[in-house]
Amino acid sequence: MNYPTPILDPRLTADMERVRSGSTQLFRVLGNHRSFINEDNADVVLTPPERHLYANLVNGEWHWVNGCEECNGRPRNIAKSYIECNAHNVCCTCGTPRAELKEAPWGCIDGWQCKPCADAEHEAEKAAALAAMPSDEDYDPWDYKGCDRIKCPYCNADIDSDDHYDAIENPRDITCYRCDNTFKLAGEAHITWTMTRDEGGAA
């Protein structure tokens, strides 16, 4: 079926507002309602004939509109797409349909990635990062002392410090997101001093 296509429901009028609840479409006549539309206070509740469709007002009439980015000739973008159609709801790496997944997928800007592909990609990045590091014989622990930022001593990955300030008082083990190695992190506080003249001025 081609979209947009009219929604043949006589209950719908052009003076209605519409919200989505998942794929369900909730309609209510515009007025002085203060509450958000839900299934209990909606005037009309419709389920689209296909999950990737949503209702949109076109020239004063409600139509089913295709919300799948790729169907509409645009690059796949999970942040913009409403719901993907079954044909395009696939792993962005290997093309496995979501219905065939055995484990939860990983979200990404290009849609989503199945766990086997995400694991394979992680292992490839891990191997490349470890291969780029100096050999154990050339490893110098002083390169990882007194640093301004946290970096993994195994693969040099930058680690966000926002969640690790408690290591100043309590050194602890953390695991690198890139190479999966665990290392001990200890924070070091640097004391500074601030001097301010008294408001009364000099003696």
Task: Kindly describe this structure.
The chain is mainly beta. It is built from one helix and twelve strands. It has one helix at residues 115-131, and strands spanning 5-6, 16-21, 24-29, 44-46, 53-58, 61-66, 106-108, 111-113, 150-151, 158-159, 172-175, 182-185. It has a three-stranded antiparallel sheet with strand order 1-6-5, with no helix packed on it. Strand 2 and strand 3 (24-29) form a beta hairpin. The radius of gyration is 28 Å and the shape is flat. The model has no long low-confidence stretch (mean pLDDT 90).
Brief sketch in words of this structure:
This protein has 203 residues and is mostly beta strands. It has one helix spanning 115-131; strands spanning 5-6, 16-21, 24-29, 44-46, 53-58, 61-66, 106-108, 111-113, 150-151, 158-159, 172-175, 182-185.
Q: What attributes does this structure have?
A:
three-stranded antiparallel beta sheet; about 200 residues; 12 strands
Question: What's the structural blueprint in terms of helices and strands?
Answer:
Layout (H helix, E strand, L loop, with lengths): L4 E2 L9 E6 L2 E6 L14 E3 L6 E6 L2 E6 L39 E3 L2 E3 L1 H17 L18 E2 L6 E2 L12 E4 L6 E4 L18
Antiparallel strand pairs: 1-6, 2-3, 3-4, 5-6, 7-8, 9-10, 11-12
